[in-house]
């Protein structure tokens, strides 16, 4: 298949979509982007890459980081993790509070904010120190992407100052004894990993292990076991786009994870990892053109899992 030609065709067809949607503004520093940017990268299991648009431009990975932190938590904990965070779709927005109250502080899944705050808290308990925990998260992603990545101080501070809903979620869960560490430390670590900056090309490389049963196909290093990689993919499919997860499965048909920075990663099992970037979001907080581009991709290649 000529993937470069397919990317070119997607870019051409997506042009009329690029002005649609709005850049995230509830974290003020996220507004400082080129709203009509578009990029897409594909990384095959044999290491071949195909790229289009501003594929080497770094953007705020936001909720895509939850894939890395959940993978790390799965590595360190067994089934006991699911006593603190479930694996069912929430059917609610990513920052919703309502379900958490009547479900006694146990978040529905690790990809909504509450669930990711719990997995970050579990990593803090494991490593016992907030700086070490963040270093380990960085190291995990560096090892996956074979690049040195860093976080954006301005975006981190902006979210620290404006993250009222996340503070509410963490406080509510603490009241149900589902946060073990001081709320400030858990949130600081969570906001820092959301503020990590990566390009489409780097993210496609970093996600390749999920297309290959948890093993880096280029070095044979096992990052998580095959059963655990299966769980991460399953949750990306059912929960990776919050209350638009059904819509994403319906139109795209791949395990995927979005972030309010405008990135989406998607996995074609046993074949490739894909990343798309376009910062204007739809009403559910997922990249508008990114979703359309991935839909075009599975239509043109017939590579949906269904
Ligand atoms: O906690 C937040 O609200 C952000 N740091 C991450 C949210 C996010 O990326 C949702 N994605 N579509």
Automatic annotation (TrEMBL):
GO terms for molecular function: glutaminase activity. It holds the Pfam family Glutaminase. Signal peptide: none annotated. It comes from the Bacteria. It catalyses: L-glutamine + H2O = L-glutamate + NH4(+). It is an enzyme of class 3 (hydrolase). GO terms for biological process: glutamate biosynthetic process; L-glutamine catabolic process. Substrate binds at residues 63, 113, 159, 166, 190, 242, 260. Its EC number is 3.5.1.2. Keywords: Acetylation, Hydrolase. InterPro entries: Beta-lactam/transpept-like, Glutaminase. Belongs to the glutaminase family. HAMAP family: Glutaminase. Homotetramer. PANTHER family: GLUTAMINASE. This is Glutaminase. The gene is glsA.
């Amino acid at each position: 298949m000529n993937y470069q030609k397919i990317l070119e065709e997607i870019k051409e067809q997506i042009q009329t979509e690029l002005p649609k949607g709005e850049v995230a503004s509830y974290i003020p520093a996220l507004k400082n982007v080129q709203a009509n940017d578009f990029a897409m990268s594909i990384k095959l299991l044999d290491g071949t890459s195909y790229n289009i648009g501003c594929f080497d431009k770094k953007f705020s990975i936001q909720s895509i980081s939850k894939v890395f932190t959940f993978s790390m938590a799965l590595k360190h904990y067994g089934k006991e993790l699911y006593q603190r965070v479930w694996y069912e779709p929430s059917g609610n927005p990513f920052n919703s509070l309502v379900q958490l109250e009547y479900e006694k502080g146990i978040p529905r899944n690790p990809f909504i904010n509450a669930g990711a705050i719990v997995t970050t808290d579990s990593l803090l308990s494991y490593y016992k120190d907030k700086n070490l925990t963040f270093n380990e998260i960085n190291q995990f992603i560096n090892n996956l992407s074979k690049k040195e990545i860093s976080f954006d101080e301005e975006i981190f501070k902006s979210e620290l100052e404006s993250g009222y809903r996340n503070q509410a979620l963490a406080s509510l869960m603490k009241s149900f004894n589902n946060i073990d560490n001081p709320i400030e430390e858990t949130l600081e670590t969570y906001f820092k990993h959301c503020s990590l900056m990566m390009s489409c090309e780097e993210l496609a490389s970093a996600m390749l292990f999920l297309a290959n049963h948890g093993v880096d196909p280029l070095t044979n290093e096992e990052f998580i076991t095959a059963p655990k990689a299966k769980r991460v993919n399953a949750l990306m499919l059912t929960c990776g786009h919050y209350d638009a997860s059904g819509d994403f499965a319906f139109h795209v048909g791949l395990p995927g994870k979005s972030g309010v920075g405008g990135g989406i990663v998607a996995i074609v099992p046993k074949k490739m990892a894909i990343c798309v970037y376009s910062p204007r979001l739809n009403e559910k907080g997922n990249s508008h053109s990114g979703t359309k581009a991935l839909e075009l991709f599975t239509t043109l290649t017939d590579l949906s899992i269904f």
